[in-house]
Amino acid sequence: MTIELGLMLAGMLMIGFLAQWLAWRVKLPAILFLLLAGIVLGPVSGVLDPDKLLGSLLFPTVSLAVALILFEGSLSLRFHELPGIGHAVRGLVSYGATVTVLLLALAAHYVAGLGWPIALLFGALGCVTGPTVIAPMLRTLRPNERIANTLRWESIMIDPLGALFAVLIYEAVVSRQEGHTVGIFVATIGSGSVIGALAAALAAFLLRRQLIPEYLQNYAVLAAVLLAFSVSNALTHESGLLAVTIMGIALGNMRGVHVDDILDFKENLTTVLVSMLFILLAARLHWPLPHGTLAAGLALFVIAQLVVRPVNVALSSLGSELNWRERALIGWVAPRGIVAASVSALFALRLDALGVPGADALVPLIFILIIGTVVLQSATARPLALWLKVAEPEPRGLLIFGSDEVARAIGKALVDAGFRAVLADDDWDGIRRARMEGLDTFFGNPASPHAERYLDLTGIGRMLALSTHRERNSLACVHYRQEFGRDKVYRLRNLTPLENTDRAALSENLLAPPLFDEEMTHGRFAEMLGQGWRIKSTRLSASFDWPHFIEQYGSHALLMFGVEEKGRLWVASARRELEPKPGWTVIALVPPAET
Question: Count of domains in the chain?
Fold first, then answer.
């Protein structure tokens, strides 16, 4: 039994990795492939039986995994970001979400025949999208900036808020089923909220005063989350999920607590948990589904897609700057994600044990909604965006990894030439200076899971690795080579070819072409700027062509970029020497003017 359990768990880890890798390759949400893998392993082939495999450990395992998923999602909610997210997004995550819950509940009650408690729970779970499904879809969809920002911020905000709403409804259902009074329900909510807030306050106290060494902070927060969940459940039945949700929201909004490293760790851990969890949950589905469940699920999916979402967007966007074409696309795109799948399965386990009618139909209905929205919208959103003329044209912007004086000077030159440039770095001083200079920035490692959620790549099609860290430049090049294409990623050398070891030179050849020329390095570029060299943008003409430019500024002038008359950007690199033509605008590093 031990060998079988170990082999099955190891096999699930590998299958989960393959599903995540396939999702990354085809730029689709990983949840789709994880659920399909679980369905094939479980009801289709019978290879995996989670109840037999884990036995009495199944419910605690699922409970703890869902607790961590909810904490990780709620940790990303920032109240200070709410005022700046726009009228439409605030509507979508507030009264729009409430309308969605009610309409889905009505449909579940009258179409699927669910009782009101389960129908309301279905509505609460069915309103949640989430960054894990929206982010990969936006990369394929490539809508204009207003649509991308609306969908991205909606997914970030609705993830923890929707989870909190679903947990509150679940608490009410369980309390009613167990015959508890309103007072006990209020006590359950109060107990979970207090324990979550106290756990967050204690964690913040220890982190602020550096009473926990940095290498143990992730471990400590992980233990605190699971302990808060378990203690809350022990003191007040079924209050643990609320406690970890409140803990995440509170800890993420406390001043002086840096949660970025914790969030990165939780996201990595969540990737493993989600991979295992969804395979387990999908494998528990019974085939054939309960009578009428498949037809009811398809009907609910159609209603959610064609009625509920458009009504939500129409109401939420009243008075916003979105035009009807943008509203139409937003009204089509709302794939359901991790919270809906994981939390519904956990609720169903508990509600089924309590004998709540219709609990066995909750998971199949949610899974049909998830698979239906992801598949349909992934296949149709891009053609719809093109037809509505709200798709982003060929991405012209650049992501710049780095924020020192070299990165800022190059970024400013590109912005002045009419291109979007985003400087991404985890050096706060450099990012602060870039913001003061009016440049778009992202504080964080652009190749991290955190950037997957929050870095807005709308209109971005190239990456320039300009940081002073050679190894991190290499990692960023590998990461974005898959995102943008091998010919759209460049790096500024940190060492000259003569300074490279044979091994380093070999690895560099496998990465991205060096910027500008073979001899140019980051240190040399910074030194030239310090000596008074400046980046100059000049439009060439028949009477003042590139040879005339070289004659005026000298043969040592360094050509960096060329912009065609139609706006196409060419990047000078050691592997491609540019030949600027009349009508081009050249961006070059030129020596200081002689006095």
Answer: 2
